[in-house]
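Justification of resources, computational component.

The compute hours requested in this renewal are based largely on the per-chain cost of generating structure records like the one below. Each record pairs the submitted sequence with a full structure-token output. That output is archived, and it is also reused by downstream analysis tasks.
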Amino acid sequence: MPLPPLGLYIHLPWCERKCPYCDFNSHESSHIPQTQYIHALLQDLQDDLHFLQGRAIETLFIGGGTPSLFSGSAIKQLLQGIAERVPFAPTLEATMEANPGSAEADKFAAFRDAGITRLSIGIQSFNDTHLQALGRIHTSDQAHAAIEYARSANFDSFNLDLMHGLPGQTALAAEADLLAAIACKPAHLSWYQLTIEQNTVFHKRPPLLPVEDELADIQEGGEQLLASNGYAQYEVSAYSKPGFNCRHNTNYWSFGDYLGIGAGAHGKITNTDGSIQRFAKRRQPQDYMAAEPGNFISTGRTLEQGELTGEFMMNALRLNDGFTLSRFVSATGLDASVLTPQLELLQQRGLLNCERDIVKTTDLGRRFLDSVVAEFFADAL
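The structure output for this chain reads:
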């Protein structure tokens, strides 16, 4: 079967301060060994070249941690090193996460010069009280400044990352955050509810969050506000102006392939025989940088049929447009009939719409998406 598009995820794991809600592989540090880490990243990529199988990199995403702590020259060195090893598609989308607390006009201009085409700025809130409750190191004024830096650096496409359902947040305050973001005229908005994850400070000491009815009001009001301002929702937490969907993340949700380099990075690769592998790299930065060539992968496995079905649905059902059954077949190599029992059951329950070749959630199914997806993991249990 034809191989899917290929993306590249790069993990830069350091941050100035770990946020109490964050469960990502991030590490506080006042000193980042940029040169040493970039050397390890490029060797890691060198080891993974056999996964390309003749494909170019369509999208690239630098996440963290706080990637914008790296210098502009370091990012340029990294991207040049990558370009020497793998082909980039002519339409490459290269996204980099940035935080207002580490934003500088010259640095953003250097990122653009290095080849970054899209920024994702971690605002989270424009309310200083809520920023403090989230443990963020920036202020609302710094958030606005970072957005202006992005615009002055000629980033036509940038994303603002916002949370809602914050400690002590009312529906009115959540609306004010969205209005502030919309006024900045970003091409893309990521707007999602704060959740309490294990192994975080908030899990050990939970803050007082809005109740379910308040969360429902915030979600409904926010979706209406975004739509009325020209932002189309195309995924659970992603909204964009026409033509500005995040292609890298859409590749994830469409069950495309991606390499993952960096401490704790994950990858997903389809082989020419149709089998699909997932792998993860060494998690601790020091262990990762000390790895010998050929020894960056810490875990890897080939997905079984039950896992394939569940993982495809976990991603594809996040998209508002859902997926086609023919896409399921081409992405997994499985026959569409393996979905029939669950599709019929969930359609009867009013959680899925299955019309012709297209499968997508109903409004009710979107509210209970985790339960819908769980039905497709049953064979893997």
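The chain has two domains: 6-251, 304-381. The two ends are 27 Å apart (CA to CA).
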